[in-house]
Amino acid sequence: MFQSLKTFNDRRYLSIFLFGITSGLPWVMIGSVLNAWLQDEGLSRSAIGLFGAIFSVYSFNFIWSPLIDSVKPIVLGQRRGWIILMQGGIALSCFVMAQFSATSDLFYLALVGLFIAVFSATQDIAIDGYRIDVIEAKDNDGLSAASSVATAGWWTGYGGLGAIPFFLADTNYFYWPQIYLVLGAIMLCLMVATLFAKEPTVDRKQLLRAASATIPLATRSKVANWLKQTLIAPFAEFFTRNGVRLALSFLLFIFLFKIGEAFLGRMSIVFYKEIGFSNSDIGTYSKLLNWWVTILFSLAGGLVNIRYGIYRGLMTAGIAMAASNLMFAWIAETGPDVKLLAAAVVIDGFTAAWSTVAMVAFISLLCNRAFSATQYALMASLSVAGRTFVASSSGFVVDYLNGNWSLFFIITALMVLPSLYFLYRIRHKIKALEMPPLPTKG
């Protein structure tokens, strides 16, 4: 285990951590903060749930992800250039959001929220590509360590910084529009970290030539060649390398794994407020406590993946994820008990962190570095699809159950089981991917 800890002794992980913060913060802007604002303005559960459709952008970002791999911005390089441009767009959108009212400008709130999602989803493509590029090829321990650090950073942005709006909302000086000014200012500060990060040194042309050698895409037209290499080659290479059946198996598991957690997360703020918790309770337990718990278990999850492998990490996290949802069913029966909320947050933080670290490492393992951003975006978008398309109906489910939150959380626990069965079926393929390459004879 001490040897596993030494993996983290690398300055690259600081940049990965800070980019994780940048990636997590927009989910606060268009997720929990927007939900709380709409809830305070009296919108229905179904309407708030439908606002979650904004997140569907994350499910489609693989469509334009090839451009992030092939088009180099004029500033800061391939990865950092895209990141800092999108950070600026997010900050500007927050400042615009602060000018609206949730009662009279609902359409414009949704529209600007959509812009934040587009900028954030595009930023995530570059951030994921950065994380994969900056780790040496076939360094599975490095991928697991980077995944845990990125997860800790994401939850620092979502949980640690995400607690600030709820504390501010309970003061007499800030309401939700002013809070968006604060969120925009935080994003501007995070742009400084991008300036000081080191751009990965990757010979992308050589990697592209090697990857394209197995894919017959060449034509006489330079434009057609560019389009095929940019838009088709990343996806063709993934299916060619793994075979269609195994590639589809990977993608189906990724889609199924976090649907139950997504249903819970989409309605969590509405549940907390309906059951009787204050904004400060939400900030303290759902954000701050969850932040520290998630950081701890993100690092622990990385160590477990390094020591025991990604498959065991995924299976352990999936079982715990199903069990943790039942804690919220208990709260629904007992009422606003902060001690029980703290216990539920600790368990949920463990499962969210562990499952995310294992999933990020698993997806990273499947990527070819020639198309790192594109292939990661393809697979990550499937994971997010469960949180967007399917989970957007979570408000309707609660309404259909007549507000029976306990039954709702039991259903979300059962949603995890199909993915665990599927994971068991593909366990041998995952373990084979984790094996280090055989040494070549000199």
From TrEMBL:
Signal peptide: none annotated. Coiled coil: none annotated. This is MFS transporter. Its main location: membrane. It is a multi-pass membrane protein. GO terms for molecular function: transmembrane transporter activity. It comes from the Bacteria. Keywords: Membrane, Transmembrane, Transmembrane helix, Transport. It comes from Alteromonas profundi. NCBIfam families: 2A0125. The chain crosses the membrane at residues 12-34, 46-68, 80-100, 106-127, 148-168, 174-197, 246-269, 289-306, 313-332, 338-364, 376-398, 404-424. GO terms for cellular component: membrane. It is found in: Membrane.
